[in-house]
Structures are given as C-alpha cells and as structure tokens.
Design goal:
two-stranded antiparallel ribbon, about 35% helix, 3 helices, about 120 residues
C-alpha cells in the first residue's frame, strides 16, 4: 500500500486563463492556465506538503527546495500561494436544487396543459 503522503495532486479542471500569458523571448505568447484542485490538495499545498509549482508531494512539510523542480519552498511558497491562489470555485450546475425542482414543476405543468 502506498504511503498516504504520496497521493498525487490531479487537477479536476484545467482552463486557459482569459487574461494572463507568458511572453517568450522570441515573441511568442504562451497562454497561462487556471487549474481547479480538490480542497484537500489545496490544504496540503497551503500547509507545505505539496509544491505549488509542480505539485510534487513531500513526506515532510516545508522542505528547503522541491526535490523535483527546485522551487524554494521554505522561503517562497507561502508568498507564491497567497499571490496565485484564486479562491474557491464551484463546479457543477449554476442552479440550486430548489431552482431545478421549481423548473421541473413548471415543465410538468406545461406538459399537462399541452395535453388538454
């Protein structure tokens, strides 16, 4: 059985960022992305158990550098996380359950009226 700390961070959704990009030295523009992560993965990142740049999990929190990408975790990750974390994002339908029930009831009434 794999150790619990090794569970990889897998984004739930990746979208092109609407207004950010990287301007490369040769003039090309690389579009930036927005990633939606599970709440517990965000908590692990905030607590220093996951690299905020490459998503590498750590056995111990706040190592000096990420062993995979070399990012300065202990000195810079908290500031990077605060600057880059966009907050909670809701996934799923934009309507509430109550709105859906109301919509279904209206649809049912219209069907009954059409039959008469």
């Amino acid at each position: 059985m794999a150790e619990r700390w090794r569970r990889p961070v897998v984004p739930l959704e990746i979208e092109e960022h609407p207004s950010q990009g990287l301007w490369l030295p040769d003039g090309r523009v690389q579009n930036d992305v927005t990633m939606v992560l599970r709440a517990d993965d965000v908590d692990r990142m905030r607590a220093g158990f996951v690299c905020a740049k490459c998503f590498e999990p750590f056995e111990q929190a706040w190592p000096v550098h990420c062993p995979t990408c070399g990012a300065p975790i202990r000195t810079e990750q908290a500031a990077y996380f605060a600057r880059e974390y966009g907050g909670d994002q809701r996934l799923g339908p934009s309507t509430s359950l109550e709105e859906e029930v109301g919509r279904m009831e209206e649809y049912r009434r219209k069907e009954e009226e059409a039959k008469q």
